Amino acid sequence: MAKKKNFKFIDLFAGIGGFHIAMHENGGKCVFASEIDKFARQTYEHNFKKISPEIFENGNFNEDITDKNLDYNNIPDFDVLCAGFPCQPFSHAGLKKGFDDTRGTLFFNIKEIVKDKIEANKKDSKTPIPKVLLLENVKGFINHDKGNTFKRIKEVLDELGYEVNAEVLNSKHFGVPQNRERIFIVAWYRDIVKVKKFKFPWGIDEEGKVIYNKDEREDKSKKVNVGSILLSQEELEEFEIRDHKTYTISEKLWAGHKRRRVQHAQKGNGFGFSSFNEESPYTSTISARYYKDGSEILIEQHNISGRPDRPRKLHPKEAARLQGYPIDSWYEIPVSDNQAYKQFGNSVSVPVVKTITNEIIKQLL
Question: Would you tell me how many other CB atoms lie within 10 Å of the CB of residue 63?
Answer without folding.
Answer: 12
